[in-house]
Amino acid sequence: MLVHRSDLQPLPSADTMPQTTSFKIGEKVRHCKRPEWGVGSIAKIEVITREGRPDRRIWIRFPNVGEKTVLASLAELEHVETDSLATAASSSPTLADMHARADAGWLGEISKSKPEDMMIALPDAATDPFIPVGRRLKNTFALYRFDGGSKLIDWAVAQSGLNDPMSRFSRHELESFFQRWRFALDAQLGKLLQEARKEPGSLEDASRGAPPAAMAAMRKISQFR
């Protein structure tokens, strides 16, 4: 059977291919807009077509929230070298991490670090001074997507690493933790805004796509400076 050239679909060129071909199963990546998820490992990659263009659907296992599925063309994934500082700064240990690593069990670890201290701690990705201020700002802005209402449980899952934070804490406790965490977040943003003054352009770049709550917090902090 003859096939007309008009029936043939041209192969995608390097210019039309999204920047997704560099991802491989087993690689370590960080979701730049979700730094508190930690450094994840790529478990599966599926080639798909989206809006007429080739794309990749990627399954990633994150230590703090489990497996997530993202589109490579939309998710801001960053390769992470396992022996780099970025791995150590990806996220702070969660309650679930403590439980998994505890030699003396859950109670042994709790005696060393109180759960409430960990629930109000900010991720290292937002506070580590070895990370460029622009990246810390971006990571800090991303945390403002959480609120104390409809997304309280989402925040608690990310913060604790527990699939069901309500099995460990009451809602009243979580609300109290969130308020203290948000206070710490605002304080950290204030410090970063001062630091960003020494690096022109870092604030503008970091604030692109920031949640409305982050922009509101920045304006409020700026009023008192």
The main sheet comes to:
5 strands, antiparallel
Q: How many distinct domains?
A: 2
Distance between the termini: 76 Å
Fraction of residues in β-strands = 15-25%
Q: What's the gyration radius in Å?
A: 21 Å
Instruction: Quote the average pLDDT.
Output: 77
Q: Give me the side-by-side strand order of the main sheet.
A: 4-3-2-1-5
The total count of strands amounts to: 5
Shape: globular
Spell out the helices and strands N to C. Answer: EEEEEHHHHHHHHHH
Query: Which segments are poorly predicted (pLDDT under 50) over 5 or more consecutive residues?
Result: 1-21, 83-91, 98-112
* Helical proportion, percent range: 25-40%
Q: Helical segment tally?
A: 10
Instruction: Supply the helix-strand structural class.
Output: alpha+beta
Offer a concise description of the structure.
This protein is 40% helix and 15% strand. With 225 residues, the protein is α+β, with helices and mostly antiparallel strands.
Task: Walk me through what this model shows.
There is one protein chain. This protein has 225 residues and is α+β, with helices and mostly antiparallel strands. The protein folds into 2 domains: 22-91, SH3 type barrels; 115-223, no CATH class. The protein is built from 10 helices and 5 strands. It has a 5-stranded antiparallel beta sheet with strand order 4-3-2-1-5, with no helix packed on it. β3 and β4 (66-71) form a beta hairpin. α6 packs antiparallel against α8 and α8 (171-196) packs across α10.
